[in-house]
Specification:
By secondary structure, this protein is α+β, with helices and mostly antiparallel strands. 19% of the residues lie in helices and 34% in strands. The chain has a single domain, classed as 60s Ribosomal Protein L30, Chain: A. Strands 1-3-8-9-10 form a 5-stranded mixed β-sheet, with no helix packed on it. A 5-stranded mixed β-sheet has the order 2-5-4-6-7. β4 and β5 form a beta hairpin.
């Protein structure tokens, strides 16, 4: 019989949701350009999750994790079961960059940020920290022991 070792790092791809439980390890997502990574962490259970969504509104097709309006409620429900418990979550968001600086036609990053803010308000939730906008891609990692999110963008590191 093989022994099962705890997973040290859960990787979340584009249009995906991943979760892990502390007290060790992390949940990480890469390639956050105009996409947004939303992290939710419960301070008592040490359960944490990340949603990496691409677009604001689900047209009713494809994976629900690709869209803010269908993915964010699933993110919250993956960590807590009740609305009351959701208020205890530490929620952090990063991404939403304008990756095509000279093309304002689509403004996907800005639309993703607007959708995030509207959904947080609608669900009565508050972001504990954020690193949104700009013009650079990011990698973000949730530390499951303490709920901190470390954001790497080029040579800069930010701890949220």
């Amino acid at each position: 019989m093989l022994a099962t070792l705890p997973v040290e790092e859960v990787r979340v791809g584009i249009a995906d949701l991943g979760m892990g439980r502390g007290p060790q390890g992390s949940v990480v997502t890469h390639a956050l350009g105009s996409c947004i990574g939303v992290f939710a962490w419960h301070p008592v259970t040490k359960l944490g999750a990340c949603l990496h969504y691409m677009l604001p509104k689900n047209p009713g097709e494809g994976t629900p994790y690709k869209y803010a309006d269908s993915g964010i409620p699933l993110l919250i429900r993956s960590v807590v079961q009740s609305r009351r418990e959701a208020r205890k979550l530490r929620i952090v968001a990063t991404g939403g960059a304008n990756m095509q600086r000279d093309v304002e036609l689509f403004r996907i990053g800005k639309r993703n940020i607007a959708a995030l803010r509207a959904l947080m308000w609608r669900h009565g939730l508050v972001l504990a920290a954020e690193d949104l906008g700009g013009c650079s891609p990011r990698t973000a990692r949730l530390d499951l022991s303490n709920g901190q999110v470390t954001v790497q963008s080029g040579s800069q590191t930010l701890v949220l």
